[in-house]
Design brief:
This protein is of the alpha+beta class and 180 residues long. It has helices at residues 14-21, 25-47, and strands at 69-70, 77-79, 85-92, 101-106, 109-119, 124-134, 145-148, 153-159, 167-168. The chain contains 2 helices and 9 strands, in the order ααβββββββββ. The chain starts with 13 loop residues before the first helix and ends in a 12-residue tail after the last strand.
Length: 180
């Protein structure tokens, strides 16, 4: 008398054996991984925000890429440590090379434009950033200066009249903690 003995075939690898023993593992893992990716995307978007206060607009919002936006700043003036009042506007241009950034003033209209194009055999990258700002009546456009920091923050400044209300700029020392 012969008997048939059922044989379960498992693949030769550890993962194949575990997958057959726990069939929901792959779908649960994928679901967990997708949730993790969503959270990371949210974290990156929040972490890398460095733009002027322009009504809380998200710089990563695809609807605004390539469109010319007018910058709204409640108080563009600051008073530095030595008591000098100045117009002070800052823009995040960290994703652009210095030669890709253009700052120009036409009458009282200031425009910051940055454009990056890159293409390779299997990818194409295109980024564009445009912001416009109407300078206050009491700011002389010929006195505007712009500087780009090593971390990509574009700062545009001009002297301000003595009688304008300003926010007081105060340097706050940063304490560096040693890692043990």
């Amino acid at each position: 008398m012969s008997r048939l003995v059922p044989v379960n075939y498992f693949g030769s690898g550890y993962f194949e054996r575990q997958l057959s023993l726990f069939p929901k593992f792959q779908s649960e893992f994928q679901k967990s991984f997708d949730e993790f990716e969503k959270e990371m995307h949210k974290l990156r978007r929040e972490m890398f925000k460095l733009s002027p206060w322009d009504a809380g607009r998200d710089p990563f919002d695809m609807a605004h890429w390539g469109l010319q936006d007018v910058l709204q700043v409640d108080s563009p003036y600051v008073e530095d440590v030595s008591g000098n009042k100045k117009l002070n506007l800052k823009f995040d241009c960290s994703r652009f090379k210095p030669e890709e950034i253009t700052v120009k003033a036409i009458d009282r209209n200031l425009t910051v434009h940055a454009k990056h194009e890159e293409s390779g055999p299997d990818k194409r990258v295109y980024r564009e950033f445009t912001r416009s700002y109407v300078l206050p009546e009491n700011v002389d456009p010929s006195k505007l200066t712009s500087s780009l920091s090593s971390d990509g923050v574009l700062c545009i400044e001009a002297p301000a009249p003595k009688d304008v209300p300003t926010r007081r700029e105060r340097l706050i020392p940063t304490e560096h903690l040693a890692i043990q």
